[in-house]
Model the fold of this input.
Amino acid sequence: MENKAHAIAAGAFVLGLIAVLVGLVVWFTRDNTVRNIYELSTRDAVSGLQPQAMVRYRGIAVGKVTSIDFDPKVKGNVRVRITVDERVPLTTSSFATLSYQGVTGLAFIALDDKGESNVVLKPNNDDPPRIPLKPSMLAQLQDRGESIINQVEEVTKRANTLLGDDNQKRTADALENIAAASASANTLIKQLDNTVKTGLNPALAALPETMTTVKKAAGDVSRVANNFNTTVGRLNAPDGPVERLSDGTKALAQAVDSFNAATLPRVNRVADDTSRAVRRLGRAADGINDNPQSLLFGSGGTAAGPGEPGFSAPPATNSLARP
Done:
């Protein structure tokens, strides 16, 4: 009887100890964080995502996935319901992506915000607001996989064409031409070296003497320039040749003006008088020519004309003989 009582006491002690341990675990693992409910809807696959999966905002754990099912509002979409810490600054421009942890490959929801909007996304647990679930990098890679494979095939075909027999032959010919060009370049370099040694070096050796000659010529040119400047200075000096020539030119201009003002009018008058005398002499010559006896008897009186006093008609003459 006593053994049975001891067994019951030991069992009760063990049960009490287990309850205390459970209570301690619950106490230390209790979560008093206030979380809001949000929904995600997508037509992409959510492979690897499980309920109780982690929700992170820019790498910080801020919540968990509560359920995954079909979207009753959009046919064919998958709805993911999550709980997020109320301290997370979600806005209307926030979005979610499906990401995977490195080695384990466990899926989780990654939240982010590009800062395009400052309007806070108001929570409503009765009708949770929806956050857009954008395709992940893996999903985008899968969508573009066929295009990438086609491009890889095209690149492979072009590489095969490039490495064909004809192109390989052309490449070999090109390499041979390059080798020949290199040999020609080496020959040209040797010839150039010989030219430098035989032609350029003597010219360089004679260069100092040439420079000396050039300096002498430059000195001569400088002296000529100085002499020319001196001559110009003398010409332009006060009471110099240039000034005298200017004074002579002014005097000649004054003489010409005086001739035009005084002498030229007199010459014009003499020419007019001479012209009138020549005209009178011409008329006299015409009169002598018409009446030469006027030189001996003078010009005489002028016969009266018809109607004037002393006019007498000339006698009539009959030029016809009578029968």
Notes: Residues 144-236 form one domain. The first strand starts at residue 35 and ends at 42.
